[in-house]
């Protein structure tokens, strides 16, 4: 008889599936892999599945239930298609740190575009504010204001500032969220701080590269005591944009949605074309130079 459960961890071959807190190790029959050549992982953490328990106590996944949404990225290591980072989330947070590793707005922008394109509500966490030097926080706060102005929730946190992560924790209650970001920014540390008793493994930053050492190796869905669920994911070096039509990219920049209606050409890419509403808005200071720069960077990559 089939049971319904949620995938809380995936190691590639085995999936941990939870039903009312009881966890079963499940296998996935090969046919699911053949079905979906365009994705590298047919089942992702957060998926709801139907499974059956065999005589040896292990399970077999028989069906993957339709997803509300998912966060994809371009597959790495030269593989074709996309990798599903997580499925069925109410909010996806991109986590960055002020320093160690340095804040990367290009990463944030690629993440936000992905979430807009896949209709996943997004938010931004900037961690390690305690490492800011001199007037660095002024610049970081300006970045925060920029994204708030675009409608995204932004949290500044430090695991050394209890008030800061408690504020974020309130936004994680009663829903499923995910932390996604480079290695070493403190995704797992934030969870440990918010939920004492979790004791998830964290790792030092490499003193040579100032980056993390990929301490978290598998995505994992963790229950919080405020009835929230949060998925901790392994750090990712690159958030490769999935394939998007060049002329559609600007749809995923909230500040370009109105101006693009004034472009002369319906398939305008807002780069070299005359009478472009987006370039006009940019020249009038209505689109931030960093954001327009990110747009052009992404546009160029979509060429390939
Ligand atoms: N100063 C400071 N250090 C922090 C903060 N948050 C995390 N760290 C440190 O940063 C290092 C990396 O933290 P992790 O939580 O392992 O980072 P992660 O994002 O989970 O990294 P991966 O699992 O590799 O993706 C650890 O040494 C933490 O103690 C913070 O707010 N301030
Ligand atoms: Mg981690
Ligand atoms: Zn245009």
Bin the strand percentage.
15-25%
- In spatial order, strands of the major sheet run 10-9-8-11-13-12
Query: What is the count of distinct domains?
Result: 3
Largest sheet: 6 strands, mixed
**CATH superfamily (homologous) name of the largest domain:** P-loop containing nucleotide triphosphate hydrolases
> H/E order of the elements?
EEEHEEEEEHEHEHEHEEHH
- CATH structural fold name of the largest domain: Rossmann fold
Low-pLDDT stretches are none
Average pLDDT confidence is 94
Total beta strand runs? 13
- What is the 3D form? globular
Written description of the protein model:
The chain has seven helices and 13 strands. The protein is globular, with a radius of gyration of 20 Å. It is α/β, with parallel strands linked by helices. 23% of the residues lie in helices and 24% in strands. It has helices at 31-35, 105-117, 136-149, 162-170, 187-194, 277-283, 289-301, and strands at 3-10, 14-19, 22-27, 48-53, 59-64, 70-74, 82-87, 91-97, 122-127, 154-156, 176-180, 220-223, 229-232. The protein folds into three domains: 3-66, OB fold (Dihydrolipoamide Acetyltransferase, E2P), CATH 2.40.50; 72-79 and 84-232, Rossmann fold; 246-301, Probable gtpase engc, domain 3 (Ribonucleotide Reductase Protein R1, domain 1, Orthogonal Bundle), CATH 1.10.40. The structure holds guanosine-5'-triphosphate (GTP), magnesium ion and zinc ion. Magnesium ion binds at residues 187-188, 215-216, 232.
């Amino acid at each position: 008889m089939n049971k319904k459960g949620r995938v809380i961890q995936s190691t590639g071959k085995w999936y941990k599936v939870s039903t009312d807190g009881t966890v079963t190790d499940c296998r996935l029959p090969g046919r699911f892999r053949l079905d979906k050549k365009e994705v590298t992982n047919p089942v992702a953490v957060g998926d709801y599945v139907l499974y059956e328990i065999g005589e040896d106590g292990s399970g077999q996944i028989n069906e993957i239930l339709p997803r509300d949404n998912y966060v994809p990225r371009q597959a790495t290591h030269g593989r074709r298609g996309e990798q599903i980072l997580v499925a069925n989330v109410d909010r996806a947070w991109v986590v960055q740190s002020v320093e160690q590793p340095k804040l990367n707005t290009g990463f944030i922008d690629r993440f936000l575009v992905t979430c807009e394109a896949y209709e996943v509500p997004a938010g931004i966490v900037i961690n390690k504010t305690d490492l800011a030097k001199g007037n660095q926080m002024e610049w970081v706060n300006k970045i925060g204001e920029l994204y708030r102005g675009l409608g995204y929730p932004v949290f500044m946190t430090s695991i050394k500032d209890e008030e800061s992560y408690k504020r974020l924790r309130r936004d994680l209650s009663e829903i499923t969220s995910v932390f996604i970001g480079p290695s070493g920014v403190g995704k797992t540390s934030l969870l440990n701080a918010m939920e004492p008793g979790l004791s998830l493994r964290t790792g030092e930053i490499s003193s040579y590269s100032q980056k993390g050492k990929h301490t978290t190796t598998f995505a994992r869905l963790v229950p919080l005591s405020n009835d929230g669920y949060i998925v901790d994911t392994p750090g990712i070096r690159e958030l490769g944009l999935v394939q998007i039509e060049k002329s559609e990219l600007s749809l995923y920049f909230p500040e370009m949605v109105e101006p693009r209606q004034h472009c002369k050409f319906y398939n305008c890419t807002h780069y070299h074309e005359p009478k472009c509403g987006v370039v006009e808005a940019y020249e009038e200071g209505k689109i931030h130079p960093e954001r327009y720069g990110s747009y052009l960077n992404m546009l160029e990559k979509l060429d390939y």
